[in-house]
Amino acid sequence: MSVFRYAHARGAGWRECATACAERVGRAGGGLGFVYFTDALAPHAESVVAELRDRTGVADWIGTVGVGILATGTEYLDEAALAAMVAELEPAQYHVFSGRARAPAAPGAAHFAVVHADPETPDVAGLIADMSAKVASGYLVGGLSSSRLRAVQVANDVISGGLSGAMLGASVGVSTRLTQGCTPLPGRHRVTEGEGNVIAALDGRPALDVLKEAIGETLARDLRRAAQFIHVGLPVAGADRPDYLVRNLVAIDVRAKLIAIGDEVEEGAEILFCKRDAASARADLERMLAELKAGLPAPARGALYYSCVGRGEHLFGRRGAELEQVRDALGEVPLVGFFCSGEISHDRLYGYTGVLTLFH
Q1: DSSP secondary structure code for residue 293 in this structure
Q2: Domain residues for 32?
Q3: Rounded-to-integer distance, Cα 324 and Cα 331, Å
Q4: pLDDT over 60 at 107, yes or no
């Protein structure tokens, strides 16, 4: 089977980007379209979708805006840019949903879903978990929109707020994996006193004392600097490999020896501390790509990649390095995606991760 049609382009404005992509995609006539555009084009999202629909003949489109977008071996940031891909699917193999066109209450053949969400939506993590229950595999992939301007999603219409995307039937071949951008530091710790997102004690000791011991004397001397790349991991129970949700250290009270993190934790919960650096991110991305390739039952026809806004050049040291590593492993597989405000994998909302999905 042939690879999916795709294109990516930069330009002076929305029309140049949309025209270039539509011409390269060609007259597909049908299928499910994926479209991602930088926030410079967000004010013109309706025009972008209309242009793609008219020129390609593809009626159904899903996607969103990002501060940066991704394509095969390429990252676009701080410029007007667009990436589009058309998955060669029959209408019976997918269902586009949003707040305006809801997912069926009993989707039946729905097996997997690609989801985009507004980061300002209340309890977005809970909505993601609820949506995962509507697909047979329980698996969602996607990300939260990121924009310095208007945060929008595409689900045939251009919309704001909530969740949107497409449910895929079991006949659509997909494989997906997640890569972390952090390395766990030795040891796990139990919350023995705390409330909400504030942790007062770990293992019966002041939380800040445990943090300092975990990160070492050198980092402990400058906690403001340490908080830039030391994070808290919340272990995921029942995962098929060691997995954890990364949350930021949002505050440290030196006098009271308290720490606050970017999520709520209950007394009795386990946490770990982890360090975000380029070497661990590259190594884990290499691991993920090798696992994904080894398990593919057929050649990849197309790919979606959702990466945290804190990754890319900020983590890998150079613009394009992350996507080049993906291309080096997969070859010239058509790939589109964006830099997210949070990444969706399975039934959870992650941070500092990359989520790669291959169609085969």
Answers
A1: H
A2: 5-180+281-359
A3: 10
A4: no
Query: Is the domain of 148 the same as that of 48?
Result: yes
Contacts with 6 (C-beta within 8 Å, 6 or more apart), sequence order: 24, 25, 71, 72, 83, 84, 85, 86, 302, 334, 335, 336
Looking at the fold, whether 63 and 175 belong to one and the same domain comes out as yes
127 with 22, same domain?
yes
- What's the total number of domains in the chain? 2
Burial environment of residue 298 by CB neighbours within 10 A (0 to 12, 13 to 18, 19 or more): exposed
- Kind of pairing between the strands at 270-276 and 182-184: antiparallel
Is the pLDDT score of 105 beyond 60? no
DSSP-assigned beta bridge partners for residue 344: 142, 349
Enumerate residues 6+ apart whose C-beta is below 8 A from 334.
3, 4, 5, 6, 72, 85, 301, 302, 303
**287 and 215 within one domain:** no
Phi, psi angle pair for 224, to nearest 5°: -60, -45
Please tell me the pTM assigned to this model: 0.90
Asked which of 226, 254, 276 is the last residue of a domain, the reply is 276
- In this structure, the answer to whether residues 232 and 320 fall within a common structural domain is no
Residue 259, burial from CB neighbour count under 10 angstroms (0-12, 13-18, 19+): buried
| Confidence at residue 104, expressed as pLDDT on a 0 to 100 scale | 56
Calpha distance 53→5 (Å, rounded): 14
Q: Which of 246, 128, 230, 94 is nearest to 179 (CA)?
A: 246
